[in-house]
Amino acid sequence: MTLRTFASVLTAVTVAGWATSASPSAARADAVEDFYKGKRITMLVSAAPGPAYDLFARMLAGHMGKYIPGKPGFLVRNMPGAGGMVALNHAYTQGARDGTLIFTLHIALPLQQVLGRKGVRFDASKLIGLGRLSAGNTVTGAWHTTGITSYRDLYEKELLVGGGQLTSNTAMFPVVAHNLFGMKLKVIAGYRSLPEQMLAMERGEIKGLGSISLVTLQNWKREYLEKKQFVPLFQWGLRREKELSDIPTVGEIAKSPVDRKAVEVLATQMDLGRSFFMPPDVPPERVAALRQAFDRTVKDADFLAEAKKSNSDIIYASGPEVEQLVATVLGAPKDAIARLRNAMVQRSGGRCEEFSGATSCAKKKKKKGKS
To answer: pLDDT digits over 220-246, tens only?
Structure first.
């Protein structure tokens, strides 16, 4: 064999070796593309149309498909109820585990699992993180007609605030503030959604909101802040928001170390923000493809232009990072959880039906008759 012939054979063998070694990953990529081609991904939103969860989900659904192999379409489906628990229970127990379901995770739900709440039918530790688009504090606040301008006023004046189901942040946060801080917050629970609470406040049926995210205020009800219609009293978060630099956090208001530790468990949830997850058992190659598509979407010029148009700041976190945030909540100190569990008992307040029309209130489940 001549030297030239030997070199040709060696080159051919080497190229063939490269092709062989590269083929598994290429085959996986082809398999992902083949799977998604002609399919539609469901984007399940745990909130009613309008507020931040819905806004970010629709923005993501509008741009992410072009970065997924096979370019699948998206269908956005809203499933509000029980502070996001209805949607997560559905996704976990009935949702497709093949990579055709993405859902928003309400920030309060990992804690509901830790507390052993009735109705939890998921294990948040098994959820697969896709990524986060935004994060920010929520605020408890009063309508401008009340004359309440500081959290200190709540030690003297009663404020009726709206809330969803008692497991939702909109009801749970002010209940905790009432029980731990002694604030005269009377929670009117049972509203169907945050938009219904806001309408009830505008109509004067309630006088404030137990919890609303700054993100929602910024990109959906900007006039509340600009016209000073809504007065933030304190923030739920680990640090003050830049736009609300003069408004204290719950950690600053807490009167004892154990109370501070308890409310900071709640505040930690804020870093989860508007995160997106998948059910367990999605094939790894599809998880990788969807995470890569998510990461490319947050850098997409059209996506960023739409976010800017809606006054939405993109505060990105990766899939593994949002999984770690969930793990942090699930691993909260036992003494803080015990303190929270006691503080979450609603000892005073009212129901939506006593203050607003039936259409604003969540439907009560009918009790099954005895057979």
So the answer is: 888 999 999 999 999 999 999 999 999
